[in-house]
Design brief:
five-stranded parallel β-sheet; Rossmann fold; 2 domains; binds adenosine-5'-triphosphate; Heat Shock Protein 90; alpha/beta; binds magnesium ion; 354 residues
Amino acid sequence: MPKKVLYADDDAGLRRLVERGLGAHGIEVVTVEDGVRAVERLKQEQFDVVALDNYMPRLDGIATLKQIHDLPNHPPVIIVTGEQDSAVAVSALKSGAFDYVLKDASGQFVPLLLAALTGAADAMRMRRAKEAAESELREQRDRFEKLAVERALLLREVNHRVANSLQLIAAFLQLQGGSSNNAEVKAALTDATRRVMAVAQVHRRLYTSDDVQSVSVDQYLAALVEDLAKTDTTETPVLSLAAEPIDLDPDRAVAIGVIVNELVLNAMKYAYPQQEKGPIRIGLKRVNGRHAMLSVEDDGIGHNVKTLPRSTGLGRSIVGAMANRLGADVVYDPDHHGTRVVITFECAPRVNPS
Ligand SMILES: Nc1ncnc2c1ncn2[C@@H]1O[C@H](COP(=O)(O)OP(=O)(O)OP(=O)(O)O)[C@@H](O)[C@H]1O
Ligand SMILES: [Mg+2]
């Protein structure tokens, strides 16, 4: 039920009737004698519902209704019209009246008016509640989106710093290797440099791409291979990469990078001992939907030769640990002439850009 109602009617008898009838239900009723006054009154104070007699001098009910609808936050309007006049009722509804009530001279219509006013007030309350809920929802979504943007920015920043710090460590190791006169120390520090750089590259990729949570492994490997070629001191190897676009989470991308790093380093060191040039091929491709296959191969002497004295075997155990992370086995292809290592791991199926 509405608390406060504005009723406009030029008939003083009906005004009193309505005032008394609605007042009996505890409703505060303000009455005015025409549409112009109704609009003035609405500009000054809030009403839950407005009821307008349609036949009034100066401004009739529907014309008043139109003026009321131009007011901000206007209450719903009910048109009260003579019993025979259904055409007015139709045009009232068309003009946006919430409802209409057919009146009679004896005042029998007051209960009908009360029902219409109550319906309008309830509908308005529900609409306001719905609007409030919707705007709350919108606000929350906006806040969430803002947070997500901030979070991505922060992650990017963190990855940037991590990458820079790792790069710095790699540079220290390289400097230290360069200042050593011992060939073995030099070689060990070069290996350490490359291992650190393999991890640094993942963070670099994470802050340079749009996506801060996954890594395009193909692009990552391209950068990594470029790094490896740069730090290579011998002239023998010729690195080539053929990688299909595959996205992985940072942890698994690191695992792939470290594996490639170790296997390429091994191929550089051992595959072609006689100084002759030979290819080192790195491949990454999808196999049967949910899996991807990583391969590193050379056409060298093969890995089954006697382990060199300075071998630490560290590379092999790093590769094993990283493959474990990927939930994959390290397979040495027995049919390949030279060394071919294949690692097949699970990855999310490709999403078709549509
Ligand atoms: N591509 C390859 N061609 C020929 N021999 C290989 C190849 N990869 C590995 N090997 C052999 O396997 C051995 C073990 O490699 P692994 O990476 O485990 O150790 P490492 O490379 O000698 O030491 P580290 O990795 O610590 O530098 C190597 O010493 C080498 O004899
Ligand atoms: Mg090795």
